Amino acid sequence: MGWLVWALSPTYRRRLRANARLAGVDARAQRRAIAEAGRMVAELPWLWLRPDSGELARRTEWVGAGPLDEIVAARRPLVILTPHMGSFEVAARAFVDRYGDAKPLTVLYRPAKKKALRDFQEAARGRPDLATAPATLAGVRQMLRALKRGEGVGLLPDQVPPEGQGVWAPFFGLPAYTMTLAARLAQQTGADCHVVRCERLPWGRGFRMHCSPLSQALPAGADLEAQTAAATVINETMEEVILRDPGQYLWGYNRYKQPRPQNVPATDAETA
């Protein structure tokens, strides 16, 4: 499936090559990334339509989860950052399989425009101890309430936010419009901030969850300079995590696009 998209879309080919080369990723890892993108699509029906049976938990192993165990045991709020790599749709499900009884999770998502597809998204992704929050002001308020209850929230920090909800910060050497929401949520609630990525194991053997902290503490402050510095820390962390396994990153994602305009005031966690 991945190679079919590669063959049919010149735009996808150009973007994948350009983004991967910018990060210094060789041709072998690029080829692997093409195939992994197809595997990501192919596994979605199994993930979304399969009833909860414990099968995912049996197929998932964890690496570096000690700090998360401590955060959950201490009932501290937690912001989870998951880049567009590997089985990122699996990451939230795997988290609640392991921690959901003690720490429910709310994940941010961009609702589909068509109501039928939007309803399907919510039904497929929603699970006990796993809530979804739309990328709107109401969704931000929902995540803030969850953090204030000592729960967890999950975001894709390398997703381009709407205009007014981010700052320009370097990502593999080029300015990329980067969300400020993740840092603001952590700063305003005192939440711990960790990266959790889900590696897809070969030959259908399952998944491996990798946990790691940010490259450095997030700078404090709500002004543009502080928000840009925080976004830069998050982007640097994403770069480090991605280059550990570049063959599973979605290099075809249009990371450097202009943010889309919005018709409502910019979402701001402080206002929320």
Mean model confidence by pLDDT: 89
Work out the strand percent.
15-25%
Return the string of H and E elements.
HHHHEHEHEHEHEEEHEEH
Query: Largest beta sheet, briefly?
Result: 7 strands, mixed
Q: Helicity range of the residues? A: 40-55%
Number of helical segments with 4 or more residues: 10
SSE-based structural type: alpha/beta
Q: Using only CA atoms, what is the Rg? A: 18 Å
Contiguous uncertain segments of 5+ residues = 263-272
Q: Give the count of structural domains.
A: 1
The N- to C-terminal Cα distance equals: 41 Å
Describe the structure.
With 272 residues, this protein is of the alpha/beta class. The chain has one domain (54-248). 44% of the residues lie in helices and 18% in strands. It has helices at residues 2-8, 10-22, 27-49, 55-58, 66-73, 88-99, 115-125, 137-148, 181-189, 224-244, and strands at 60-63, 78-81, 105-109, 130-134, 152-155, 166-171, 174-179, 192-200, 207-213. It has a seven-stranded mixed beta sheet with strand order 1-9-8-2-5-3-4, sandwiched between helices. A two-stranded antiparallel sheet has the order 6-7. A hairpin with a 2-residue loop joins strand 6 and strand 7. Residues 263-272 have low confidence and may be disordered.
